[in-house]
């Protein structure tokens, strides 16, 4: 197999891993640039529930349900630039396989981009996506100014095997299928091809 076609094949598989992890994960760590003293200008990480669509209806876009009362949302109002990290450590996969959460074999994805408020039909989809997987959200206090937002992806970082992080473009990411029945971790692909 020529290197170019092998590289494209592996890259496509890496993009599928990213889509798979994003769809499977129910929560993520959102890192913003802090706007409050004494940590102003420093990275600030916080946990948020996410959904890229109802189960088995992946859009690839992580949606969030936010309130201006949340400290990280206040950071986003100053600068929407952020990163979103998800890991299979929150699933049974890593635990059952005996993988430490930090191990690259316990696949994790970091999305670079920004958080944007959404309206209209996209907000309707976000509501369905989030409330179907996080039904408790429907009962959260109605006087908190909740709104729907999406993570606008500019670059995807994937760590699913030893040897360093791999990156895929948003275009490659959205073209990939997160199909659970056919996705294999890119580490499997790399392991198999390294034996040839």
Automatic annotation (TrEMBL):
This is CREG-like beta-barrel domain-containing protein. Keywords: Glycoprotein, Secreted, Signal. Belongs to the CREG family. It is found in: Secreted. One of its GO terms (cellular component) is cytoplasm. It comes from the Eukaryota. Residues 13-174 form the CREG-like beta-barrel domain. PANTHER family: CREG1 PROTEIN, PROTEIN CREG1. InterPro entries: CREG, CREG_beta-barrel, Split_barrel_FMN-bd.
